[in-house]
Every structure is written in C-alpha cells, then in structure tokens.
Amino acid sequence: MSDDVRRSVSIERLEQEVYLARNARGGELRFGSGEGADFTPVELLLAAIAGCTAVGVDVVTSRRAEPERFTATVEADKVRDATGSILRDIVLTLEVRFPEGPDGDAARAALPRALEVTHDHSCTVSRTIEASTPVRTRLA
C-alpha cells in the first residue's frame, strides 16, 4: 500500500494573532504570534522536526526496551537578512536512556542506526526542509 496521500491542515483565526489548527482526524492545536504561552509557527516547525525524528527512532528502539528517558530538543538561529527571515543552523539533540540489561543493550545498539535511517529516509519533515521544497501560495 502506498503512503502517497495528500496531507492537509487548516487553521482558523480565533482573535488577532491567535489561530486554531485542525487536522482531518479532529485534532486541534492553538498557536499564535508568541505574545502568550501558545507556540509560534517557528516553534511548531521545530517541534515537527523533533516529533518526526522521535517517532521514527521510538518505533525501532522501543521494540527492544521501553526508554527510561526520551527527549528531543531542536534549536535554530532565526536570522533576518536582505532576503527575509529564515532558520539557520538547525540542530536536533536526542537524549534517550534505556534500562540496564540485555533489552536495554539491544535498544542502545539500535539507536544510532535508527537515528540515521529516520534522518536520511523516513522523517518527512526534516527531509522536506533539507530538500528546500518550494511552498506555493494562492488566494481562494
């Protein structure tokens, strides 16, 4: 079965600089300009990079052992130059700790390859960013 299916998310303005994103499955996520606690669009992009990588690595490693700690942090420099704003030097740091014992050893052994495969092949988010995929805009 092919995974080539169009994805979509819609957003609705709730108030000035505050929006609600909805997916086709009914999930909702509030975000905004950063004036309050809501995530900004840039923070959502960073979270998407971390989340995509985390899911890929977690699927492989947790088959071997349940992690005691699993965090992903993404940092980037937001730069404004003559061409506009862009993120530079995006760095994802994954911290995963497994229990002692053979199952934990197996999960630790699988971790580097799982991270490599996720980054190089299966994480749609970071692969799209690295491919510099154009975004077209249009008015309805």
Structure, described:
With 140 residues, the protein is an alpha+beta fold. The protein has 2 domains: 1-39; 40-130, GMP Synthetase, Chain A, domain 3 (2-Layer Sandwich). It has helices at residues 41-61, 102-122, 124-130, and strands at 9-15, 18-23, 28-32, 69-81, 84-97. Strands 1-2-3 form a 3-stranded antiparallel beta sheet, with no helix packed on it. Strands 4-5 form a two-stranded antiparallel ribbon. Helix 1 crosses helix 2 (102-122). It is elongated, with a radius of gyration of 18 Å.
Question: Can you lay out the helices and strands and say which pair or pack?
Answer:
Blueprint: E1 9-15, E2 18-23, E3 28-32, H1 41-61, E4 69-81, E5 84-97, H2 102-122, H3 124-130
Antiparallel strand pairs: 1-2, 2-3, 4-5
Keywords:
single chain; 140 residues; alpha+beta; GMP Synthetase, Chain A, domain 3; 2 domains; 3-stranded antiparallel sheet; 3 helices; 5 strands; 35% helix; elongated
